[in-house]
Specification:
Order of helices and strands: HEEEEHEEEEE
Number of helices: 2
Helix content: 10-25%
Mean pLDDT: 90
Number of strands: 9
Low-confidence stretches: 1-21
Largest sheet: 9 strands, antiparallel
């Protein structure tokens, strides 16, 4: 069994066990076709943007509150949407290389919910704290999100700013190299997400 299959099986088993042991908990499965994850990165000379594939995801709601979530992204399905043809292919080839996300060794990235706090007086419905795992490195991040449930469908929308240097993505980073000039690529990049999940 590959590392990817082992990781996904372990995550699914752990989540299934967690959900089934809590009476009154509703388990939701993320609909990959109806969901979207996008990225936006900037550099001194411009910007790039694209999408990341969604492998699978599960969530649990108890008494109307989200209490658990685990989402796994397919890094082999990363794409660029602002460049076409040869230039787009070259950028994606660089992103999956060891310079960036080293996809041969780290085929997935993941998010696991740690804490959710309602924020009724703010623009987003909740403040989310969770663990992002990229290139095998896990960091805790807090960000706003809108969480809604209606007619058996759970939706989570929002965006989070991540610092790639925390995940050992060094290429063109001013955190690791000096005097990069126009070759500087900013460490912070934005991930936007619209996750749609159906009750099981």
């Amino acid at each position: 069994m590959t590392k990817l299959m082992t990781f996904c099986a372990a995550a699914a088993l752990a989540f299934t066990s967690y959900a089934n042991n809590d009476e009154g908990t509703t388990r939701y499965k993320v609909d990959a076709a109806a969901s979207e994850i996008t990225w936006h990165a900037t550099k001194v000379t411009g910007e790039n943007m694209g999408t990341v594939g969604l492998l699978n995801g599960y969530m649990s709601v108890e008494d109307g509150e989200l209490i658990a979530a685990n989402v796994i992204a397919n890094m082999e399905a990363i794409a660029c949407t602002d460049l076409q043809g040869e230039w787009g292919d070259k950028l994606v080839g660089h992103l999956v290389s060891e310079d960036f996300f080293h996809v041969d060794e780290h085929k997935t990235s993941a998010f696991s919910l740690r804490e959710l706090t309602a924020t009724p007086d703010e623009d987003a419905t909740h403040k989310v704290t969770g663990n992002f795992t990229i290139r095998g490195i896990t960091k805790s991040v807090t960000f706003p999100a809108n969480v809604t449930e209606k007619d058996g469908t759970l939706s989570i929308q929002g965006e989070v700013e991540l610092d790639r240097s925390q995940f050992d993505v060094k290429y063109g980073s001013g955190s690791f190299f000096d005097n990069l000039g126009d070759n500087l690529i900013h460490d912070n990049f934005t991930v936007r997400f619209n996750l749609v999940a159906a009750a099981q």
